[in-house]
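_Backbone structure tokens_
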Amino acid sequence: MVTHVHTQAGDDIKYLVFDIESVPDGRLIKMVRNPGEDIPEEEAVNAFRKELLENSDGMSDFIPVTFHYPVSICVAKVRNDFTLAEVVSLDAPQHRPREMVRLFWLGAEKLYSEASLVTFNGRGFDIPLLELMAFRYGFTVKRHMKDKFGTRFRFGTRHIDLHDWLSNYNAIRMNGGLNLLAKVLGKPGKTETSGDQVHEMFRQGKMKEINDYCVQDVLDTYFVFLRTRVLLGELGIDAEQDIVRRTRDFLFVNKEKVSAYESYLKNWGDWEPWP
């Protein structure tokens, strides 16, 4: 695990805000969808995408989560008072899927077992992917799987899926997603990279750029999380804005070590609500 900024001893980590970037598993797609066919894995992926696009009337060619594996996992550790302790990129710069998944579950199950997970659409993608990877590699995730009101429970606080919560548990479609919510707060949201570009970036070996994108998504998720705590009355708006300012200082101080921070700051905006 590469740690961007070291925490102090005794830090009270209460939340793990995380995001995953993933790519289609060409080998698995070929095994499941094209058994016995002598075709390249990339051809199997492209054929699957084409079929998905046709079946959705041109709306989406996104390959289902069951056929993915992670190439970047980034985690923001957040203290009990909602301040940011550190951001880590698991197993950077190698980004080995097995090791990233091992480190994630080590943190969630043991090192920070009392911390709540915070995601944006984690119930719909990130958590199922991590579960399927634990299944693939044979990792035990006993606490996550067996605790009835734990991280798999939709309406609890052990896993706070901001997408699920803000959409009134899918009563509406959260059109615009994390990008929209971040921009409402003046934060960068999507800039030069979006999720549908990750596979091509991976093919080009742009792992640093993928990981930077993942870090920036985690920061957006963190700021959206803070505002949801204002909605709940767990933070006052003045306290939230003070934490935002302190986080900006944190990013500025560490931007020479973490290129993702420098890019994030270039697109930084302050919260100026309208109309």
Notes: The mean pLDDT is 94.
